[in-house]
Amino acid sequence: MERSTRAFQDHFSAHAATYAAYRPRYPLALFHWLAVTAPRTELAWDAGTGNGQVATGLITRFARVVATDASPEQIANAEVHPRIDYRISEYQSGVADRAAQLVTVGQALHWFDMDAFWPEVQRVLQPGGVFAAFAYVHSRVSPGIDPIVRHHHDVTLGHYWPPEHHLIHDGYDSIALPIDELAPPPFEMREEWTLQQYIGFLRSWSATQRCIAARGEGPILYFERELAAAWGATPRRPVTWPMFVRAGEIR
Asked: Residue 101 sits in a domain of what CATH number?
């Protein structure tokens, strides 16, 4: 592993309820692929689970899921399930040695200190077990809306994104992972959202919250008025997010 000095970072606790309400759902096809790729489906550990979006998908295919996050506020907003064991922790899972067939990180690996995290992955995964990190990138709505949102992301909020955020946009290629890489099929997230749901998603961004803290609601409200004009009277619009997956057996 290359040396990383990035500690686990929490940019979402202060607005955990908004995050839980307005984040898109991962496709069930992703969890099917993870299940058939793993050697068995007895136990998966989801690290950086947030409000449990990945954990609730994994439990459709795995007998048991341990889901960890450093944020008590995020865990408090997670969907309860009798076979999901939520735990407040940075990198320690509490899973027995070589007991898990799958370890996942959804939309969070860029915040992790890999030197602290990876030894735990090696400890809990059994031989043939699979590690999978995945994330989604810029949303797509329509040719009239997408450039407005992209300008907001890059320019209005550009100064407020933590540096680690941009690791998503290179597909995590700059994060060294000692795995025998698999070639996953293409995945994307899809929602049919109202304007208010889409605005809720954009407000769940860490950069939005940092901008509000620094400058107040003004820049966000200006953007939202521009977005509403482009959205028009259409009650709901399809929103898609292309995804990338890096997965494989650990070396």
From this structure: 3.40.50.150
